[in-house]
Amino acid sequence: MDKAITVAALTVAYGAATALSAIDLEIPKGKVTVLAGPNGCGKSTLLRAIRRLHQPKSGEVRLGDLPISGLKEKELARHIGLLAQNPSAPDDMTVEELVRLGRYPHQSMLQPWSTADGEAIQAAMFGTGVSHLSDRRLGSLSGGQLQRVWIAMVLAQETDIICLDEPVNHLDMAHQIDCLDLVRRLNQEHGRTVVLVLHDLNLAARYADRLVFLKGGSVVAEGAPVELMSEQLIEDVFGISCRVITDPVHERPLCIPIRNSSPRFRAEQATQL
């Protein structure tokens, strides 16, 4: 497997609390990898550690064969773009002004702006379908439009690796599909390596080339969706009884939840009887 990122024995802690415990993981180049798992399992922490926003307690993250700890910030930002959960910007900022921020890693004091910067911005807005919104204020946009603009900002960085933390959070079903179709197109047409955090297991199975299940700060399973979407593994990781069938349209695994099967949930239910 051609590796874009290697995570080696990575441990991350918040004070005395361990968020990630000795994680080993390889992110394949040119593929869509989805991190999935229950709340608090370490998905977002792992994504942020890949972008060096968390200092590891031990272990390392490598970009190819190069430890990211040895890269300067702008150099790392030219390789890995990150769209965090619930990003914010002033409502009176225009679409183009926000997308321009993605060019920061490519600028210097001697050359703050170039023709290449302008071309990258126009290409990013065109690729995400927001060119016609360039002069609009962010506060006037719908949720789906705004999410596309944030993705355009990340694309303007022109990185080979794009990390997106819950990019469809708070979007309705139509805009979720619209956004993830866009991400898939960027991967397929431009060869971008994409690492996604998704809560919706069926969306994860539909769009992932590779799924990674986390639980309690550890990777418990990884592989193609057809391999990981088993009823027993889903119950072990997510604590729900379910049935897994094949989506008749996309021919991907589809999880149909039946009930919460976690011991804690059953104990809580018993106390209410």
Automatic annotation (TrEMBL):
One CC-aspect GO term = plasma membrane
Q: Name one GO biological process term.
A: iron ion transport
Q: Name one Pfam family in it.
A: ABC_tran
Where in or outside the cell is it found?
Answer: Cell membrane
- SUPFAM superfamilies with a match to the protein in the record: P-loop containing nucleoside triphosphate hydrolases
For this UniProt record, the keywords arranged alphabetically read as follows: ATP-binding, Cell membrane, Ion transport, Iron, Iron transport, Membrane, Nucleotide-binding, Transport
Which membrane topology describes this protein?
Peripheral membrane protein
MF terms in GO: ATP binding; ATP hydrolysis activity
Sequence ranges assigned to domain ABC transporter in this UniProt record: 5-241
UniProt record similarity statement: Belongs to the ABC transporter superfamily.
> What name has this protein been given in UniProt?
Iron complex transport system ATP-binding protein
Origin organism is: Aminobacter aganoensis
The opening ranks of the lineage are: Bacteria, Pseudomonadati, Pseudomonadota, Alphaproteobacteria, Hyphomicrobiales
